[in-house]
Each structure stands twice: as C-alpha cells, then as structure tokens.
Specification:
The complex is a heterotetramer. By secondary structure, chain A is mainly α. Chain A is about 70% helix and about 0% strand. Among the domains of chain A are: about 80 residues, Four Helix Bundle (Hemerythrin (Met), subunit A) (Up-down Bundle); about 45 residues, no CATH class. The radius of gyration of chain A is 22 Å and the shape is globular. By secondary structure, chain B is mainly alpha-helical. Chain B is built from three helices and no strands. Chain B is elongated, with a radius of gyration of 18 Å. The model of chain B has no long low-confidence stretch (mean pLDDT about 80). The mean pLDDT of chain C is about 80. Classes of the chains: A mainly alpha, B mainly alpha, C mainly alpha, D alpha+beta. Chains A and B meet through helix 1, helix 2, helix 3, helix 5 and helix 6 of A and helix 1, helix 2 and helix 3 of B.
Chain lengths: ~180, ~110, ~425, ~375
C-alpha cells in the first residue's frame, strides 16, 4: 500500500450533514424569534451562524466560511451581546413580547412562503440544479480566486465595489460613534 | 438519501428568510428585530453561495461571484449592526426601553 | 489487524496529514491524540507555572504531593472535580451551564489546524489561519455569556472588559497576521497561502523564519502579535477581566468546581494555541533552528539527536535531585517516585534515538520547544509586571499596536511588491 | 471634573449631571474583598468603569478599644494598643507610653530612649515593607510581596529575640523598657541594616522605572496639600503632597532631635509620589537606626515610676509620627488607677476620609490603587 493509494478527497456524508446542519439552523432560527431573553436569542443566532459556516464549507466556499466565523460569530454577535448587557433587559422580559400586528405579520410571511413554494414547484429545473453533484474541486485556490475577483487588475470585477464597501464601513464607524456617544 | 441539490439549499434559505421576516414583523424588542434582520441577510447569503456552487459546476472554479456577493453582504451586515446598535443605545438612554412600538415620535 | 499495521506504515511514509488522508477513523484517532496531549500539556503547564513562579518569588512552590509536587496538578484536578458545583440561584441557568463549554470548545477546536509537523496535523485547511483566528475569537462569547449569566456585578464588569479587550486586540493581531500572509507569497513556487502548513513550507522554501524577513518588519509584526496574544488570552499584564485585586475573579467569580476548571483548561489551551500561531507564523513552526546556515547531512544528524539528548538531560537532572533527596525513610516513596519519573524521561530520551522515531519526532520536538519558550514568557510576565488599567490597555491596543500594525502592513506590502516585481522580471512569478 | 476636586460631601441622591444615569452601577466592594485590606466596605457608584462616588462603611472590626481602656489600669491597657495598628505595634506602644509618661511627668532614661527609637524605626521599615508588598499586589505585581515579606521577616526576628513576640510586641513599658537589649542586639541590627539596604534597591528595580507601574501610579489619586490639611491627612500622604510635616522634626519626641535625618517630600500628591516618599522614608529610617545603634548609651532602662500608677487629675494629648501618620493619644485622668477616657487619633481612620476625594472621577482600578497607597489598617480604623 503506497501513499498514493490513500483515498484523496473522499465524498463526505453530504446528505446526513446537510440535514443535521439544516435542522440546527431552523431550530436556531425559531429560537431567535421566540425567546423572551435577548441573550438566549443571541446564543441561538450564533448557533445558526456557525451551522451556516459549516454549510459554506460543504458548498466549497471555505473563505466565506472563515469570514462568516470571524466576522459574524466573533465580531457582530459579540457586539450584540455587548449591547444587550449595556441595556438592562429585566423589564423587557416581563413585557408583552409580540406586537399587536403579529397576526398580520405572520400572514404576510405565510404569503411570502406561498410565493416561494409556488416558484420552486413550478420551476422545471428545480431538482437538477446540481448537475455535477459529485464534482469536487480542489479547495486550495478558492481564496486566491476570490482575491482575484476583488483585487486583480485583469479579472477584478469587484474592485470598485470593494472600495465602496470600505467607504460604507467608514461611514458606519462614524455613524455608530456619533449615535452611541453620550456627548460629543 | 437523496443527493443534495441546490434546491435543498434554496428551501433552507427560504425557511430562514421567512423566520427572519416573521421576527421583524412581530417582535417588539429592537435587539431581536436586528437579529432577525441578520437572519434574513444570512438566508440570502446561503442562497448566493449555493448559486455560486451551481455556477462553478457550469463555468468552472473561477465563477465565484456568489461568494464575493456573500462577502459584501457580510460587510454590510457588520455596518448595519454597528449603526443599528448605536441607534439602539442612544434610544435606550433617552427612553429607557427597547420596544419598537414606542418609537412613534420623530423626536425624543 | 494486518490492514491497520499497513495503514500506519503507509501513513508514516506518506506526506499527508491524517485529515487530508480523509479516513474518518484515523482522523478521529489523531484528534483524540492531540487533545489528550493538550490536556497533558495543560497539566504540566500548571505544575511548571507554579514552580517557576515560586522560584522567581524566592519560595519553593508545591512540594508535598509527590516528589517536588509532581502530582500536585492531579491533586488539584481531583479537588476541583469533587467540589460542589454551585449555580447561583439568580443565575441564568442554561447560559451559565453552557458558557464554560463554549470557551473550552473554542480553545480546543483551534488545534484542528495546528501543524506540529509537515504530516502531524489533524487537517490542513486552505483557510487555516483564518479558521484559527475565527475560532479563537469565539471564546470571547463564552466569557461574555459567563459573566452575564452569573447575574452579579463583578463578573459582568469582567465580561464587558474582556469582550472589549479581546475584540480590540484582535484587530492588531489580524494586521500582524496579514503581513505574514503577504510574506508567504514571495517564494518562487507559491502564490501565498492561508494554510498553516503552507506558511511553514513557505518559510522553508525561503530559507528564513519570517521573524527575520525584511528585517525589521517581520520582527515588528512578531512583537505586535506577541503583545496582542497576551491580551487575547487574558494573562498578566493584561489580565484585567480576571483581575483578582479589583474584580475578585472577574467573569468566573461565581463558578466553582468542574465548571471553573473548564475555564482554567480553556485559558491554558488558548495560551498554547496562540503560541502555536506565533511559532507557526514567525518562528518557522516545526523547522529546526538555522535551516539555511547549517545544512548538510551532518547537521541534520546533529539536530535530530537534540530531542533525545534534551530528554536525557532532564532525566539526569531528575536523578541528580533523587540523589539529593533526604535519606530519611519518610522520603523513600518520594525518592522512588522521582527515580521512576527520571527513568521514564530517560526511556523517552532513548526511544527518541531510534532512527525511525528520531526523524519522525523531531518536528514535534522543535515545535513544542518553541511553544514552551512562549509558555515560559507568559510565566515570566506574570512574575514581573504590574497590571495595566483598562483605559491604558485600550490605549495600547488602539493607539500603539493598531497604527503600528497598519504601517507595518503597508511597508510589508511595498517591500513585497518590489521583490515580487523582481521575481516577475525573472519570470518565475505568475498570478 | 472641576467640582469633583472640591470638598463637598458626597451627595448620593442626585447624580452628577456630567454623567448620564442610564447604566449606573452600584457595587459593594468588600467587606470580603481581596484588595480592601481587611474588612473595609466601599460602596462604589460606577458609570461603566468610572467612579461617580463612593462611600466607606467601616466598623466591621470594631472592638471598643477606647472603652476597654476605661476599665483597665494604665499598665494593663498597654498591650491593647498593639492590636490597633497591628503591623506597627511598636509605634502604637511608643505613643501610648509617652503619653502616660507625660501625664506622670516622668521621662524614660536615655538608653531606653535609644532602644525605643531603634525598635520604632525598625517597625516603620516593617510597616512600609508590608505596605509596599500589598500595594504592588493590588496593582498586579505579585512578586514584590514575597521579596518584602522575606526581608520583613528579619525585622520580626529581631523583635522576637528582643521581647518574644513578633507582631503584637508589647515592647515598651510606661517609664522605659522591661527588658534589657539581648546579647548581640546591636550586631543583629547592624547586620539587618547592611542586609536590607541592597534589598530596597531591589524593590525599586522591580517597580520605580517600570512603565506599567508608572502609568498605574502617576496622576492617580491626586490630593493637594491644602486638601490634606483640611481633611487632617497626615504621614507620607501629606508629605507626598508637598507639605514638609513630620512630627519627629516638628515636635521632637523620644530623642529624635539627636538624630540627623531628612523628611522626604513629593510634589504632585499622586500615588507615585507617595510610593517614592515611602521608599525614601525607609532609607531615612535606616539612617536613624544606624545612628542610634552607634550611640546607645549605658545606663538604666526604666525610670522611677510607682508600682500603682495614679496620675494626677488632668489631661494630656501626645502624638507621634507613626508609619501611617500622626498617631495621637488623648488621655483624661481622674486621679484613679484607671484612665477616665482614652481617645486615640488613628492616622488610618483620618486618612481614609480622603479616599472619596481622591477617587471620584477615576476608574475602579484606581480605587484599589488608592486604598493601597493610603496604607490603612482596619484594626486602627475601627479600633
């Protein structure tokens, strides 16, 4: 048995992991919108986000998965928790959790869901969207290719958008500081 | 079990999207509303990355536009969360509450 | 059975990490091995910290449980496990229960991508360093929720402090890391990589540890990381979240027994984790010292003998203290125990001389030795420095490390650009 | 910030308007807290980490020492004073004995005076070493504590050899000393002086130029000399604010005018200056000890005092410079064998009043540093 005989990139147990992660995400999502306590909601959302990062890995998008973990779970959610701790939540926990239009809201969401179902069932190509389901890519160059789309002089379609995004972040920083500061 | 197709991801994305919409429309707590918005953005991201996977299957490994979009949306989400939570803190400081229902004046 | 032996043989001869080999079973075994080794390292670290700190402070440290207190960590662990697990009545029970596990999971998961050698890693991820930074930043979630769930003021302040601290130091840390990633793109075979193994291989290919690359740029990046990683792991002099003189114990004030020991475990494995990042990124990972200056089969042989010699030296020291033990019957058990420990060390040393093992293990040895150096630094800091105040900590993070990191990144990019252009002229670099 | 420096009493009802009160936090620091030096309880009102106000709650260690004095004879009360400032028991005893001696109009013989000075200054060293160790520990440096305790041990050994006790020594008697200095006392003291001199440099090496130490102590807990005088703050805290006031020079007692020493002062009145002043005081103490041990005269160690002390009716106030500040004893005699009233002016208690002024507007970590730099002993605060 030589090293070359070792299996390379064997198929992962894709359906099993997909359903597992999907279940985690759905349950997490439901918990997010039903918990009284905002910290519990945040924890559920973190679980959802991490499961989604794992799904990204299954979709051969490792870089997006890494960004998801580092930015969403490590950055944005910490910000959320930080704010939840700054504001006292004891009072809101005892109050009514849903607003008066909850019925309308759910009805609207149901209509939207119906629309989705209608679209998905009528589309003929629906079930065959992954024609090369078994195809695997070398993950090795995913990051490089994304970088190429973002930065490269020749293939960089999104260079301008990238700069705009940095501007957006700058504006957001200033806005957040202006909003949150007690007295400027 | 069936092989997982793009549709599976789309359905999952749609479900998360709907959950987010329900959260935004029905909850009173601003923090949870913001979290629901994050949920919606993530549902979109999931779709985009799934499309990117599909596109890669057709056009080869360089067709990563969906993933680039997803990265932009994550950037957006960070900006949105920062500003939203900043507004939330300012609001809480003045009103001592985090209920959207009570944001019914143009001034405070 | 034969198949298993064959598999091990083929693994030893292959150039793949166990994860890359894709076999579920063996990957699991390797994960278990790494985690057991990590736990042992944490236990050893506990003992070493107490002894080294004690000797810095003109005292002896643990001396009672086992010879020279060797069994003290085990006694501590037993005590913690047997202690009553108190959950405060007003605490948020679920979150209180979950928080320590988040911290431990985050600290342990990082080791999935730590390269102990070119083939000694659980897996080699394309986004290794990104994954490591991301997962280690998850531990702040556990700390924040632990502080909040305790429903008590000191833990809450500790949690707020730690979240602010960890988030701000992550920025400087990331900038230092990015400068290294730029450096990886400069060898003639590769186009830059985020993979932990790839980074070390880039250093190998460039015949240079990145700490010396573009002197002094690599050194500056290394210093930024070395400061940020201390703050990241909440250790002295940045141990504000658990500053005992101010906040009693910070975020884990209300924790006791097993749950507290989980925080302890996580803290020490996080220390080892960030030290491994530093070692991988700047100090050449598993590469032996002087990879470029001292080449040739003779030097290879000399350096491959060092692990065994180091263990034999430790064994000799142990035997020396065995001889120095008092000859009183009361100390007989301890003397025998110490001699046994010395014999164990000597045996390991001898095993390390076997050629097959020798070549296979020296990667792990050099990696661990470098990490151990960092661990000693941690203890040294703790013995020497007073604690920063919170605003000063933030000042160091945002006003010193962050601008330095940005300048470093730009400078590195400029310098790297120049050498890349040169490489382009030579026709070896291709995008 | 300007009003926080004034001496207005803390108003807990209306919050300071420069802060918004949306997330004001009230923290109960102590009585069980690692850094309040015993059982001090500090109620902190915080805005984030900023101290908006604080209130000290004391009395957890109250033993009624002053009341006990009214039921004890003058001699019997002598050991009780050791229990007030238990890290500087010798100084307490010196103040008490001198006060009663003043009441009785006797004076201790010169030899006794010299030995008293040596022991008191040794005790000042011990007290300052303990302060340094715990203060550095509060600020996060754990190692100085072990160094100072190692060296303080040598002082305690001398005490033990002299009178058999290490901490609550009961070394002095009214009218002089009970015990002659033991064989080799002078040699021990000289050895100690030459032993400890490089050790003080060692402490300074660890801290004085340490960047973190400077950042943690400079400009922290500033108090002006005027405020010190207004609050009655004495000792190193007062001297660090630039007021050159030391009772050993200002109202010389117990032979101190025979010795040549300086009064170290600071300018800024911050924690760092107090640290520098105390370090300099240790060196000055060593100077005094050196001079005293060279010049111990021969002679009796006990003045003529009656077996049953019945001081004449009257009152006396006598104060000495204890390690922590002015330690005063006000004794009223009704002519009986027991004092009618003993009132102690403890330096720690008075200095503690300055805490609120020094901490307002600073951060939580500074409160700890300031409590440490005030060098309080709760036994003395509560009595």
């Amino acid at each position: 048995m030589n090293p070359a005989a070792l299996p390379t990139n064997p198929p992962v147990a894709t359906p099993f992991f997909f359903y597992l992660l999907a279940a985690v995400m759905i349950i997490g999502g439901i918990l997010v919108i039903t918990r009284k306590n905002a910290v519990h909601s945040a924890m559920a959302l973190i679980t959802t986000l991490l499961a989604q990062a794992a799904l990204y890995l299954m979709l051969y998008a490792p870089f997006v998965a890494g960004v998801q973990i580092i930015l969403y779970a490590g950055g944005i959610m910490v910000l959320f928790l930080f704010v939840i701790m700054l504001i006292s939540i004891e009072r809101t926990e005892k109050e009514r959790q849903f607003n008066k239009q909850w019925l309308v809201g759910i009805a609207a969401a149901a209509a939207l869901g119906g629309l989705f179902i209608a679209v998905y069932t009528t589309t003929t190509s629906g079930r065959t969207l992954f024609p090369e389901g078994k195809l695997t890519f070398a993950e090795g160059d995913n990051t490089q290719r994304i970088a190429g789309l973002l930065f490269d002089r020749a293939t960089g379609t999104y260079m301008f958008a990238f700069e705009i995004a940095s501007l957006l972040l700058l504006v957001a920083i200033i806005g957040a500081v202006v909003m949150a500061k007690k007295r400027i | 079990m069936l092989d997982i197709s793009t549709l599976h991801y789309l359905v999952l994305g749609a479900a998360l999207f709907l959950l987010g919409v329900i959260g935004v429309l029905t909850r009173r707590n601003v923090v949870i509303v913001l979290m629901s918005i994050e949920l919606i953005l993530n549902a979109v991201n999931l779709n985009l990355v799934a499309f990117s996977r599909y596109w890669q299957g057709i056009h080869g490994p360089s067709a990563l536009h969906g993933q680039v979009f997803a990265i932009f949306i994550i950037t957006d989400a960070a900006a949105e969360a920062a500003v939203g939570l900043g507004i939330l803190i300012a609001f809480f400081r003045n009103k001592e509450t985090v209920n959207v229902d009570e944001v019914n004046l143009l001034k405070w | 059975m034969h198949g298993v032996v064959q598999y091990i043989q083929s693994y030893l001869e292959s150039n793949q990490t166990p994860g890359a080999a894709g076999n579920f079973f063996w990957a699991t075994v390797y994960i278990l091995l790494v985690f057991v080794g990590l736990s042992v390292a944490v236990i050893a670290m506990n003992w070493l910290e107490r002894k080294i700190l004690a000797h810095m402070q003109v005292r002896l440290g643990p001396m009672r449980v086992g010879p020279h207190g060797l069994l003290q960590p085990i006694a501590d662990a037993l005590k913690l496990l047997l202690k009553e697990d108190i959950i405060p009545a007003e605490a948020d029970k679920i979150v209180f229960w979950v928080a320590p596990f988040i911290v431990v999971l985050a600290a342990f998961t990082v080791f999935v991508v730590v390269p102990f050698g070119p083939t000694h890693a659980i897996t080699d991820m394309n986004i290794g360093i990104l994954f490591m930074l991301g997962v280690s930043s998850l531990s702040v979630l556990g700390i924040v929720t632990a502080g909040w769930a305790s429903n008590s003021h000191y833990p809450l302040i500790g949690a707020l402090r730690s979240s602010a601290q960890m988030v701000s130091y992550e920025v400087a840390m990331g900038l230092a890391v990015v400068s290294v990633i730029l450096m990886t793109s400069l060898n003639e075979a590769s186009t830059g990589t985020l993979s932990m193994i790839g980074i070390v291989q880039a250093q190998q290919a460039q015949q240079q540890w990145f700490v010396f690359k573009f002197f002094p740029l690599g050194l500056i990046g290394f210093f930024i990381f070395a400061v940020a990683m201390v703050a990241e792991t909440n250790r002295a002099p940045f141990d504000l979240p658990e500053a005992e003189s101010e906040l009693t114990a910070g975020f884990h004030t209300e924790y006791s027994g097993f749950r507290w020991s989980l925080f302890f475990l996580a803290e020490y494995s996080a220390m080892i984790a960030v030290s491994s990042i530093a070692v991988t990124l700047w100090l050449g990972g598993w590469l032996r010292p002087f990879p470029n200056a001292l080449q040739g089969s003779t030097w290879e042989l000399v350096f491959s003998l060092i692990p065994g010699l180091a263990f034999l030296f430790l064994a000799a020291m142990t035997f020396y203290s065995t001889v120095r033990m008092p000859k009183h019957p009361l100390f007989r058990v301890q003397t025998i125990g110490l001699a046994g420990f010395g014999a164990l060390l000597g045996l390991i040393g001898l095993i390390l001389f076997i050629p097959g093992v020798r070549m296979r293990v020296q990667d792990i040895f050099w990696f661990s030795a470098k990490v151990a150096g960092f661990m000693y630094l941690y203890i040294w800091y703790r013995g020497t420095f007073p604690r920063y105040r919170f605003d000063q900590l933030m000042k160091v993070g945002w006003k010193v490390l962050l601008p330095t990191g940005l300048a470093l990144l730009i400078l590195t990019a400029v310098v790297a650009m120049r050498s890349e252009l040169l490489a382009d002229v030579r026709g070896v670099w291709h995008p | 910030m300007t009003d926080s420096r004034s001496l207005s009493p803390l108003d807990l009802e209306t919050p300071d308007q420069t802060f918004l009160d949306a997330n004001e936090l009230v923290i109960n620091m102590g009585p069980q807290h690692p850094a309040t030096h015993g059982v001090l309880r500090v109620i902190l009102r915080l805005d984030g980490e900023k101290v908006m106000g604080l209130e000290c709650v004391i009395g957890y260690l109250h033993r009624g020492v002053e009341k006990i004095a009214e039921n004890r004879t003058y001699t019997m009360f002598n050991p009780y004073v050791d229990r007030m400032d238990y890290v500087a028991a010798v100084s307490n005893a010196l103040g008490y004995c001198e006060a009663v001696e003043k009441l009785l109009s006797v004076e201790a013989p010169p030899r006794a005076q010299y030995i008293r000075v040596i022991l008191t200054e040794l005790n000042r060293m011990a007290s300052h070493q303990l302060w340094l160790g715990t203060h550095a520990l509060d600020i996060g440096a754990i190692t100085p504590l072990f160094y100072t305790f190692r060296d303080r041990e040598e002082i305690l050994k001398i005490f033990e050899k002299y009178c058999g006790a290490r901490l609550t020594t009961h070394a002095f008697r009214i009218g002089g000393l009970q015990y002659e200095a033991y064989e080799g006392f002078e040699k021990d003291v000289k050895n100690f002086v030459s032993f400890v001199k490089p050790k003080i440099d060692e402490y300074e090496e660890l801290l004085t130029t340490n960047r973190i130490w400077l950042e943690r102590t400079k400009g922290v807990g500033v108090i002006s000399g005027k405020d010190c005088i207004a609050l009655g703050v004495t000792g190193p805290v007062l001297r660090a604010s630039g007021v050159q006031w030391d009772l050993r020079k200002a109202q010389p007692y117990a032979n101190y005018k025979n010795f040549d020493f300086e009064i170290p002062t600071g300018q800024n009145g911050d924690t760092y200056d107090r640290y520098v002043v105390r370090m300099a005081e240790m060196r000055q103490s060593l100077r005094i000890i050196e001079q005293a041990v060279e010049g111990i005269p021969e002679g009796p160690i006990m003045a003529k005092v009656p077996k049953v002390m019945k001081p004449p009716v009257g009152e006396v106030y006598h104060s000495i410079e204890a390690p922590k500040g002015e330690l005063g004893y006000f004794i009223v005699s009704d002519g009986s064998t027991q004092p009618y009233r003993v009132r102690v002016r403890p330096p720690s208690f008075v200095n503690l009043q300055a805490l609120e002024l020094m901490c307002r507007g600073q951060l939580v970590a500074d409160v700890i540093a300031v409590i440490g730099t005030l060098d309080i002993v709760l036994g003395e605060v509560d009595r």
